[in-house]
Design brief:
homodimer, about 350 residues, 434 Repressor (Amino-terminal Domain), Rossmann fold, six-stranded mixed beta sheet, 13 helices, about 45% helix, DNA-binding
DNA sequence: GCGTGCGATGTAAGCGCTTGTACTACGCTG
DNA sequence: CAGCGTAGTACAAGCGCTTACATCGCACGC
């Protein structure tokens, strides 16, 4: 393997100069720089990451911790992180932290402690006090995306407002009997998001002077299948049928659309459905949704951690200002009572 | 930061002994081992990865290159890789290699050259000659999953057989007019898989003595939407309508099911649909499919690379023996001409 | 009772960089 | 023309480990 000494010899300079040239320091003359660069090229040299790390204390690597590796939303965030970090020449080491407690310990106590990474991005993971202590005691920047942890600087979307927006869209169209597909209580233990969306839903209804019958809440597990079953419950239950469903995720909303169709309801004529996320299948199913731009969320997190690396601050605040946007497609319309057809 | 010297001092031994203890070497007495371990615990020590790498030349890290980070199939493979590597205490550095040529160069010439990883797993990426040379010249094990590259040891599924199995399932049920939804020619330039599935389809038909009319091939882009449109073409075209569709992916198969329903056909009564992959939504849509167990494919790749790391071989052969299995659900049945109902 | 061998431990030489400090040569200024 | 600042470069000391080799006892065999 060709080392920095080989390059120095080839270029007729010291290793220090080679190092300065390669790391873009400006106190190298143009002539020297050119010689070094040509030596690098002819020898096919590239720095040894570990030697560089050891000497400088910087790894140019960010650790990313994700709870799911096979769910659309999380992989899109990951994708955004990867894109933004790659742009700046940073590597990413990926840690999939699932339920397994022993494995969690391995990751949080083991891998991440070894000065392998300059910073950590934790995507939507619930950490207990001990784990949080562990992360923070590493002495490197930590940024969370959308998690519920108050002690870690977090970038998130305002879930209450998101849900309000979706709900207000339905109210604006003239719907008065709304149902909500939210989360299982179990599921919500880890992700408080569903509760906040439920709150936003209720707030919007309250502001509109509508009190929702409790039967119009149905829990599900954030999958298409879960949304399907929940919607069947909602639509099949005797009594005044809701004219619109607000599902806390696009996948559940898609399930709801399919359920409605299977029951013989037309969407949106008989039943409006709105979701949240901006899922890739939304366009195909003509799903009206509040897009929360997960790709950008990932990119913002990456940018934030790099920023923190470049100019360390003692205090990084929580930010609940990730952008979102109502995308109106074909799954919502005025309720039939207000229609001419 | 506490270093190995601190531990050595605390335990009253040399750093060499600490190092031997921690790396599980066996020539350390039980008493000494205990002292070291307790010192490690009280000081909260963990090795510096870069120092260890630099001294030993091993990183305990595998580089994984994926072409997509937001498609179910690839993220599931990634998930399998991550699980298997984590089990052995290996880290993974993730590289998302999309179309962008400059970025590709950065990855392949830059990141991976820096002795950052002990091995590389390339998931379904097409590499040109120069890129392949680059990878192989790194002098570390490289394993591909499902790519078309003859110079890199590849683990893959036998796509011809996979397609034969799916097709033979339809033939066994009594279908004689079959259609296939495959790939756009463009798409196939990168992934030769679709062509091989098409071959398997044709072989099965030929063996059964059936010559398919060319109109029964329809290209799509491996998405639900693509499958939907392709199926509409197939079903709407005048002439003898096929009684079954074999789609080269589950997502396209799901699109085909939805298209058939939208056109007023019942699945499977009027139209059978079979896919390939084992997609998570398959159960919900009652999709008959040939599952190719992507999670296991990822795990097998990880195991293979670790094996190669432990006992290097000059030559690692291609293996086309990844398991697959026909999962018969509700989207396929005998054609109506053969039914009593 | 002494040589042998082996298990347990210590010594120290790197691994390949980065970077603070020292040095050189050059062009100024006064 | 001496004195001085500065840009450009070299020197060399680490960074925190791993590991080949040296050392040291001690049990064992004869």
């Amino acid at each position: 393997m060709v080392s920095i000494d080989d390059v120095a010899r080839e270029a007729g300079v010291s290793t220090a100069t080679v190092s300065r040239t390669l790391s873009g320091k400006n106190n190298v003359s143009d002539a020297t720089r050119a010689r070094v660069e040509s030596a690098v090229k002819t020898l096919g040299y590239s720095v040894s990451a570990s030697a560089s790390n050891l000497a400088s204390g910087r790894t140019r690597t960010i650790g990313v911790i994700v709870p799911f590796l096979d769910r659309w939303f999380f992989t899109v965030i990951l994708s955004g992180i990867a894109a933004a970090l790659a742009r700046e020449g940073y590597d990413i080491t990926l840690h999939h932290v699932a339920g397994d407690a022993a494995h969690r310990r391995d990751i949080l106590d083991g891998f991440l402690r070894r000065r392998r990474v300059d910073g950590i991005i934790a995507v939507s993971i619930e950490l207990d006090e001990r784990e949080t202590d562990g992360l923070l005691s590493l002495g490197i920047p930590v940024i969370a995306v959308g998690g519920p942890n108050p002690r870690i600087p977090t970038l998130s979307v305002d879930d209450v407002q998101l849900a309000r927006l979706a709900t207000e869209h339905l109210l604006t169209l003239g719907h008065e009997r709304l149902a909500h597909i939210g989360a299982d209580p179990d599921f919500d233990l880890d992700f408080h998001i569903p509760t906040r969306r439920w709150q936003g839903f209720l707030q919007a209804l309250a502001d509109a002077g509508i009190s929702p019958p409790p039967t119009h809440y149905e829990p599900a597990d954030f999958t298409v299948e879960g949304g399907y079953h929940a919607a069947k419950q909602i639509l099949g239950r005797p009594g005044a049928r809701p004219t619109a469903i607000f599902a806390a995720s696009d996948e559940m909303a898609i399930g709801a659309i399919l359920a409605a169709k299977d029951l013989g309801f037309r969407v949106p004529e008989d039943m409006s459905v709105v979701g949240i996320d901006g899922h890739e299948l939304g366009g195909f199913f003509q799903l009206t949704t509040v897009d929360q731009f997960p790709l950008q969320q990932g990119e913002r997190a990456a940018v934030a951690i790099l920023d923190q690396l470049n100019t360390p601050r003692a205090f990084v605040e929580h930010r609940e200002d990730s952008p979102y946007e109502l995308i109106v497609r074909g799954s919502t319309a005025r309720p039939s009572t207000l229609r001419d057809d």
